[in-house]
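User: Show me a protein chain along with its predicted structure.
Assistant: Here is one chain, sequence first, then structure tokens.
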Amino acid sequence: MAVCARLCGVGPARGCRRRGAAREQRRGGDGDSEPDTDTEPEEASGVAAAAEDDEETERIEGSRPSAGPAEAGRAPLSLLELPPELLVQIFGSLPGTDLPSLARVCTTFRRILRTDTIWRRRCREEYGVCENLRKLEITGVSCRDVYAKLLHRYRHILGLWQPDIGPYGGLLNVVVDGLFIIGWMYLPPHDPHVDDPMRFKPLFRIHLMERKCATVECMYGHKGPHNGHIQIVKKDEFSTKCNQTDHHRMSGGRQEEFRTWLREEWGRTLEDIFHEHMQELILMKFIYTSQYDNCLTYRRIYLPPSSPDDLIKPGLFKGTYGSHGLEIVMLSFHGRKAKGTKITGDPNIPAGQQTVEIDLAHPLRLPDIENLRDFSELSRIVLEVQEQVRREEQEEEQRQEGEDRSQQAASQPAAQPQGGGEGAEGEETAAGAEGAAQDKAPASQPFVLPMGVISRNEDYPRTCRVCFYGTGLIAGHGFTSPERTPGVFVLFDDDRFGFIWLELKSFSLYSRIKVSFQNAEAPSREAFDEMLRNIQSLAT
């Protein structure tokens, strides 16, 4: 702002004012670019101050005093001497958050910043609004209103969020959709069709009904939009509240609401579900989630960062979890480990918990097809690797304890690099062994589930790329007695993988969620790791 002030000749320095006064005298009249001394109160967002000026947009004309004959051929010395249409182009290329400060420089800048072309460009470039914003003139809403009172005001809620619905969690994507901000709840496809696309439904929307303020509407229920409220608690947390919960109720009472919910959630009726345990789980979920139909809190989640060394591209997957149906899992890579974190969960393993962990340093060589059908043979191979991993962990702990003792007792500094060199050499050897094991693995190999292993989806791939030793988290109802048990991670292709739970004799198939989520990238690796820790601590 200080630079702009000096350029236009109205800066705080006495020389600036003196030169500005002399220039006005030479031009033979008073210009309309005197310093702006208005002191309007600024809104919290920093943008709405520019949106509260005049009620109508003015055309830019006559804002430049005519130059004298001696000045006609010289280059402009100030931004004020540039043509107004050029200033519109310059100001339109600046971030919208900088424009209110620019408007306080002088009255000329303020008048130019009332041009809707500038704000139309900011809406398009910063928020992707591609609608014909000229249609807003009919409703009396300007592009500046859309930017300041809708897009910029609610920018902090754009992106991916996990609702706090006890163990069930969820996936909410808040996006700019035309001249609306809409919160879409993403739901897995109906069980067990894991390869089907995701389903989604709107939970709320925000739009400008008039120039005064944006309107929040709840979209829950079957009676259309109704009054709602959004409160931004802090940077990575916000809450929604419905002010008309009677719109959520149905004329047939709770029984009709349950049957409608069952058709939407599971794609079937209760009579179609013969498994008694599954009926209990479904009824329990309906009772629990219906308590949150009037007020919900959301916490931000990020998509996992990727690296060229990753086994496959990390991201969100939908997977089968027995009687619990399909759930959403986030696959991320952490050095020699890969982790699957639940975004949606169930009463046994709630959302936020790490459902599977893959040890990328221990690939598995599966037996031939005939022997692979024998569950005991696969179990023998996995348990041998489990014992090997346990020995390596014990040796690593002993080596670390020995290094700590030697460092404490060492009196000569020369002895310290020697131990560190051995550790680095050990890491290189392990990394080399991992790479050699993967190089020896064939490009693809036949795959079939062993006899006795239960799968919700029998249409799984019959070839796989590679398998790794891993562990899966199991627990009783209410997340009681949780423990990690051995299993097999099976990579089928870039978009599908599976996990064999040895103790449960169960198989889960996962398929990638192919949706381009905006505003969901983590600002840093540290921010993503912190997010994982936070959602896991909340689940615990």
